[in-house]
Write a sequence for this structure.
């Protein structure tokens, strides 16, 4: 049974000067999921997070966090949220331990060294607890931001571009950290430019563009519905054009007529224009091939198509 932890209804945000950053955003985040919010620069990702976290006031609409209105019941709503911003911390001379402990105090939580220890160990920061932040690598500083966000035991964690500017190896380590957090019952919402990040981790994906939610879908369903597949046939005899009897299929010639490329999706499979139908038609037309291979579009292909479609 669905158990929403965040409900967003009719959210609008217009800044002074008339720029509309969000337009009638409706979105529900389920408890315990990893939800990835994808969108190009300026799409409204950070504005949406800022409104949900109570850092920016909406022009219209409302947000409920674990049953609490994030405006009229701000304190109860906000204490359920941990926010990891894009910017690295600037408390350069503080130690890791003090920085994370101080963050807990900001939410009015009593000291709990055991919890801080647990958080630091889970993020591989325990050995660095006495280090000043200025001595840490960029990746370690990023982990400190997550530790700060987890210091007050939130049920929801927002990660705004969590791996921007870090190398691939560290990015994968961070993904593992996020999965562990989800396994411990934390709901994760992340914005990302890295398509592979969403493809690797998310349970559901939302696409935002020009301040509007274009689509929300389970990752697997999204990829099967919108992910096109490509079949490349290496022909025994080159063709100069696609035979008339094959025009109903999405076919193109490549490699000077030596390759016949068929692009299709799951919906075409269902309405009889799929691969098996194509192969039968090729046989009837006497078009022989010596080899074939398939390729499925990635989430990046889908994302680019969606944004282009609604540009």
């Amino acid at each position: 049974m669905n158990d929403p932890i965040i409900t967003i209804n009719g959210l609008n945000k217009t800044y002074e000067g008339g720029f509309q950053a969000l337009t009638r955003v409706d979105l529900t985040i389920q408890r315990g999921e990893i939800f990835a919010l994808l969108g190009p620069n300026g799409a409204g990702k950070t504005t949406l997070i800022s409104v949900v976290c109570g850092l920016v006031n909406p022009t219209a609409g409302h947000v409920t966090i674990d049953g609490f209105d994030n405006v009229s019941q701000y304190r109860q709503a906000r204490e359920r949220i941990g926010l990891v911003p894009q910017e690295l911390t600037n408390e350069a001379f503080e130690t890791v331990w003090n920085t994370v402990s101080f963050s807990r105090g900001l939410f009015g939580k009593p000291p709990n060294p055991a919890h801080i220890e647990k958080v630091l160990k889970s993020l591989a920061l325990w050995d660095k607890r006495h280090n000043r932040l200025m001595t840490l690598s960029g990746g370690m500083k990023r982990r400190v931001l997550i530790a700060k966000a987890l210091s007050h035991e939130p049920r929801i964690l927002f990660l705004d571009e969590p791996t921007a500017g870090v190398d691939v190896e560290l990015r994968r380590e961070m993904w593992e950290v996020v999965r562990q957090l989800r396994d411990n019952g934390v709901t994760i919402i992340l914005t990302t430019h890295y398509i592979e990040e969403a493809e690797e981790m998310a349970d559901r994906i939302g696409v935002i563009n020009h301040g509007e939610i274009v689509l929300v879908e389970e990752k697997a369903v999204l990829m099967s519905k919108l992910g096109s597949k490509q079949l490349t046939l290496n022909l025994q005899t080159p063709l100069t054009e696609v035979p008339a009897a094959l025009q109903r299929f999405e076919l193109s010639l490549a490699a000077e007529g030596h390759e016949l490329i068929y692009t299709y999706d799951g919906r075409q499979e269902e309405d009889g224009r799929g691969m098996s139908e194509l192969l039968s038609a090729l046989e009837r037309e006497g078009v022989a091939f010596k080899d074939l291979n398939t390729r499925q579009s990635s989430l990046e292909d889908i994302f680019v198509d969606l944004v282009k479609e609604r540009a």
